[in-house]
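Sample 3 of the quickstart, ligand nicotinamide-adenine-dinucleotide:
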Amino acid sequence: MELAVIGMGRVGLVVAACLADFGHHVWGADNVTSKVADLEKGTMPFYEPGLEELAHKNQRAGRLSYTDDLPSAVRRASAIFLAVGTEDGGEGKPNLGPLFQAGEEIAHCLDAYKVLVIKSTVPVGTAARWRSHVQARTRAAFDVVSNPEFLREGAAIDNFMRPDRVILGSTSEKAIHLLREIYQHLYLLETPFVIVDHETAELIKYATNAFLATKVTFINEMATLCEATGADVHAVARAMGLDKRIGPKFLHPGPGFGGSCLPKDTRTLAEMARGLGCSLPLAESIPQSNRAIVPQLVARLERKLGALRGKTVAVLGLSYKPFTDDVRESPALEFVRRLLEAGATVRAHDPQANQEAARNLTHASLSFHDSPFVACSGADAAAILTEWNEFRSLDLKELRRPMKGGVLLDARNVYDPDEAVAAGFDYMGRGRAPRRTECAAG
Ligand code: NAD
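Result:
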């Protein structure tokens, strides 16, 4: 089947490459001409494990083509997947401009029945409004399906190829039938399909992300309590996770959740409820609690080092999680920003995200380095903000050697506190350091 995917971003490009790998011929369209030109040459616009190989393979096989000519992609395709960005336009209201603009462009070139599939995350009621917007600009027949995407950056291909479930929101049997054909590969894997109306499909996405954000926030609050009580958050999380009603996933303490989804989607859920006059105090509190963690980390560092002005801190990890170079709403970047505001010098290193971080944050006292050891040279403290595998087995004695001071803030609990102390570090973790090393400092 010929398909089009609009928006060659972190979702759209993965969707296009995977649908092509299912055997469809996919037109990947983006309105940024330079991005399309790079893709045609085989250059990926971001880092996602396995994506380059998958895209190249399907491009070579003639199943994946790129274009900045949206009308030609739309005319050829039976179904058009919309994966344009819906960034926070302020106060939890996503910017739906790109989606509605793409809708107008599609409407103007619709010449036969097509299925328009909304993959972007959009507030409840958007699909219905968007449908009317397109309808008002075309005489051609079409159906809209809400098909929210649940892939996680860093494991996006596997998530798309082997999803936990597929949500299809539509009242059109014809459209659902076409989507079932497109996703036949997933049917063979016995992937559960949940067929609902638009509004329910839209809300499932927000409910899922808000629930995941709640789990992360909950264990982060327990970590803070462990720091005050001397309890060990890892033992707490493990024991909680063994309870089958809770499960072990998303119970790892850290510097707070980030990325382009959980922060934006939790804010939107709360804003949506407010707009409808519903009170959701839990949803309201999640972003608030999450935002409090980075300032707490900076304050802990300050208690150890004294005033941060004139101090040098090595920051290891800048992406919001490992296996991606995405720094959107990364707690690591916020941590760096706050250190710089406090007058510290920051020497940063990330295995993949140095470039992305430099695009988002420039400062005379901020430098980027190619290795953790170089970043730590002359530093008063080192802080691990992202749990890249590269940071899990560093020779801590070697890391400590070029440093001026010996503070290690392990915001991801990558290291065993005793091991870090044995290597000469004054160690602070998340919810497990006080017992061993932090009691005296309070
Ligand atoms: P992104 O910003 O990485 O990509 C969006 C792309 O759309 C860009 O390449 C942009 O140039 C293109 N675009 C915008 N308007 C266009 C138009 N009119 N015509 C053609 N191209 C256009 O965004 P993303 O991270 O891929 O997210 C896309 C959507 O998927 C968002 O709604 C997001 O919330 C949702 N989502 C993201 C993830 C994730 O992990 N990133 C996971 C699930 C869902």
